[in-house]
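Thread: "does anyone have the structure for this chain?"

Original post by V.I.:
We have the sequence but no experimental structure in hand. Need at least a predicted one for the grant figures.
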Amino acid sequence: MPFNLPGVLVPLHLLINPRLVVPSIVVKDIRQLDFPALYKAGYRGAVFDKDNCLTIPHEDRLVPELVDAWKECRETFGPANVLIAESVSHHLSVPVLRHTSLKPSYSCIKSIRAYFASLPRPVRDEELVVVGDRLLTDIVMANRMSHRAPPSVGPLAVWTEGLWKRENLALRALEGGC
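Reply from O.Q.:
Generated one for you, tokens below.
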């Protein structure tokens, strides 16, 4: 895995803005998300981390238990409005953001915004659901997308705390203590 300088600098950013690490909601996995209800509430797109949210880490096949929920998500938002924020994926039937910088960098956020702005019906930040399993990258990235002017408006930051495979236990322990 490449060195993630933006991720390493997150703890310093949290000293200034500790709310960046707070998810909007916490679920075990995406089966607990009601995608039609999210659509009805005004959400029009979703950004997913792949590893441990949809697949076993470093694999490219959807976890079988998530097939129905993943299908419902793609049918609800439309496959073009669901984006994988990962370097590669060939088997999930949605676009993949091949970003040059890692989450939670601002250039990664810029790439996500550019993708959703390019759609026939553009999707704004506050119409996005961002789903991830890591507080210090996925959730911080979602919260960095929020507009600073009160009231804070931005994506729904969903933290999936169920893991399909444990990895990097030191980082997981740190995130659990945030």
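V.I.: this helps a lot. The CA atoms of residues 87 and 98 lie 5 Å apart.
O.Q.: and Helices lie at 5-16, 35-40, 67-77, 106-117, 135-144, 169-176.
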